[in-house]
Amino acid sequence: MKKIRVLVADDSALMRQTLKRIIAESEDFELIGTARDGEDAVAKARELRPDVISMDINMPKLDGISALQIVLQEKICPVVMVSSLTQKGATTTFECLELGAFDFVGKPDGTVSSNMGTVAEELLTKLRAAASRGSPARRRESPKGKYGRIQTPVREKAVTRPALAQEGPARPRAVVIGISTGGPATLQEVLPLIPADLPASLFLVQHMPPSFVSSFAKRLDDHCSLKVVEGRSGMPIEPSVCYVAPGGMHLCLHRKMTGEVVIRTPTTPTTLFMPSVSVMMDSVLKIYGSDTIGVLMTGIGDDGANEMVAIKQAGGFTIAESQETAVVYGMPREAVERGGASVQLPSYEVAGEITRAVRRRWHEQS
Questions:
Q1: pLDDT score of 66
Q2: Are 214 and 230 in contact (CB under 8 A)?
Q3: Which residues, other chains included, contact 245 with Cβ-Cβ below 8 Å and sequence gap of 6+?
Q4: What is the SS3 assignment for 115?
């Protein structure tokens, strides 16, 4: 079996040793070099032509962002960023994703972490997925533009409630989206294509470090015509708003005696991922029933797969990202194999299908 050739770039000798040990313990990887700064990383990437690079963001001489840009511009290989779990680290990480970084992994203890073992499997999974995609030069083209980067204009936010949300007796609708590995970049391609007047509330679980969620929600909001907010306990649900699950808590709904639906953010049940796609989908389904549209996209494991089945069985509509574009075809595959997908679509068609499904159900009920 051909091993995945990895270059590690980090200014900390401890981090280089730690990452070297993590990679050495996996039989399908080969560490072909280490770099102590951005200039060294670029030089060794040009010389060694790795399959993937693990790139620290904060490095001397040439920082990780600049090194990333050179590597991608020269189409050498995909890059997975390794970032500190700080507000500044989150902002910089999302800038890297917008520039074309494949994904990121957060250092548990800051810029120099002796506890990388807790995210070792996540790092290895993302390095594998990145290497399997190949260099940017070999990525496929989609009907909407170059695969992996769909450019969409930022439109002005709607300043009033959408007309469709006010007209007729149609019941409220919900769109529930679950996504994990490869999700940040994918969502920045999908959500901007959803119109500001969509007559539905959206609920999103993205598996990521808790300290990154607030910055992520704000960045999505800046790029979308749809309003995007981090969900907070007690927040009332409105149409044409996307509620992002807060870090380290579940995103659930509660209907008050008055009939108003609000957000609840419990920390139970204990699940592998917190927040959990399954917990979120189940809670939303109990409130919206057949007016629920489920979406499961790239990610490891089966979080949300059974709930996609439940949504479909309840009369709702479900969309699974197809293998064609899924960074990791895990969560959507599980939904498909269990019979939980009404349709399978590449990521660049998901927003259009969500919009059609919501409007179709609005007209059916009006």
A1: 96
A2: yes
A3: 203, 204, 205, 206, 213, 231, 251, 275, 280
A4: coil
CA-to-CA distance for 324 and 200, rounded, in angstroms? 28
Task: Point out the catalytic residue in the list 10, 221, 302, 303.
Answer: 303
Residue that is written with structure tokens 């996307």 in the block: 242
Give the Cα separation of 339 and 216 in Å (integer). Answer: 32
* Contacts of 118 by beta carbon, 8 Å cutoff, 6+ apart: 108
Query: The tokens of 57 are what?
Result: 């963001």
pLDDT at 144 (0 to 100): 43
SS3 content of the chain, % helix, strand, coil (to 5): 40, 20, 40
Alpha-carbon distance 21 to 81, whole Å?
18
Catalytic status, residue 207 = yes
- My answer on whether omega of the bond before 332 falls inside 30° of 0, hence cis, is no
Q: What is the pLDDT of residues 246-292, one digit of tens each?
A: 999 999 999 999 999 999 999 999 998 999 999 999 999 999 999 99
Structural domains in the chain plus CATH codes? 4-139 (3.40.50.2300), 163-365 (3.40.50.180)
As a residue count, the chain comes to 366
CA distance 263 to 275: 13
Active-site residue 180, yes or no? yes
Catalytic residue selected from 113, 142, 180, 240: 180
pLDDT in tens, 162-215: 444 444 445 789 999 999 988 998 998 999 999 999 999 999 999 988 889 999
Is there a catalytic annotation at residue 109?
Answer: no
Q: Which amino acid is at 241?
A: V
194 neighbors 226 (Cβ within 8 angstroms): yes
* Candidate list 84, 142, 207, 225, residue with the active-site label: 207
Q: What is the pLDDT of residues 88-135, one digit of tens each?
A: 788 899 999 889 899 999 887 655 555 787 889 989 999 998 998 776
How many whole angstroms separate alpha carbon 352 and alpha carbon 308?
A: 19
- Of 229, 226, 236, 170, the residue nearest 197 (C-alpha): 226
